[in-house]
Write a structure and sequence with these properties.
- Belongs to the type-II 3-dehydroquinase family.
- It comes from Christiangramia echinicola.
- By secondary structure, this protein is of the alpha/beta class.
- The chain has helices spanning about 20, 25-35, 50-65, 80-90, 125-140, and strands at about 1-5, 40-45, 65-70, 95, 120.
- The protein has one domain: Dehydroquinase, class II (Rossmann fold, 3-Layer(aba) Sandwich), CATH 3.40.50.9100.
- It has 5 helices and 5 strands; from the N terminus they run βααβαβαββα.
- A 5-stranded parallel β-sheet has the order 2-1-3-4-5, with helices on both faces.
- Strand 3, helix 4 and strand 4 form a beta-alpha-beta unit.
- It is globular.
- The structure holds 1,3,4-trihydroxy-5-OXO-cyclohexanecarboxylic acid.
- 1,3,4-trihydroxy-5-OXO-cyclohexanecarboxylic acid binds next to loops.
Length: about 140
């Protein structure tokens, strides 16, 4: 199984950025742990701060991957274009968030991705990504 983890804006600063909300670990370090943990999965990881690039990466992933684990970060709450890109492709997308967006500001309760996502994993810290990979492994024959 080939899965793409796609992170949106400011998630390149994980480990440095608001550690009380997002933890102390960089995503590169966490990604190495995931690759070790899921040696049977072909995992790729990409990140961009730019909305249009995120749309390009979602579109392109449909050719090369069985699914996307998407943390669109702030664009989750604002981007009709990213929601449309998720709707346009026929591979499943699992939406993840590190923090529990529903326990935070009202504007973080809205997601343009959730209505089209295969599922949503929110609020488990970096473990949200681990759980998302497991969801693909457990439901791959659906
Ligand atoms: C986030 C939650 C978003 O509201 C926020 O803008 C982020 C990170 C999360 O993973 O908890 O940048 O997507």
């Amino acid at each position: 199984m080939k899965l793409l983890i796609l992170n949106g804006p400011n998630l390149n600063l994980l480990g440095i950025r608001e550690p009380e909300k997002y933890g102390n670990k960089s995503f590169d370090d966490y990604f190495s742990e995931l690759q070790f943990q899921f040696r049977n999965v072909e995992l790729s990881f990409d990140q961009t701060n730019i909305e249009g690039e995120l749309i390009d990466k979602i579109q392109n992933a449909r050719k090369d991957f069985d699914g996307i684990i998407l943390n669109a970060a702030a664009y989750t709450h604002t981007s009709v274009g990213i929601g449309d890109a998720v709707a346009a492709i026929d591979i499943p997308v699992v939406e993840v968030h590190i923090s529990n967006t529903f326990s935070r500001e009202e504007f973080r309760h809205k997601s343009y991705i959730s209505p089209i996502a295969k599922g949503i994993i929110v609020g488990f810290g970096l473990q949200s990504y681990d759980l998302a990979i497991q969801s693909f492994l457990n439901t791959k024959d659906d």
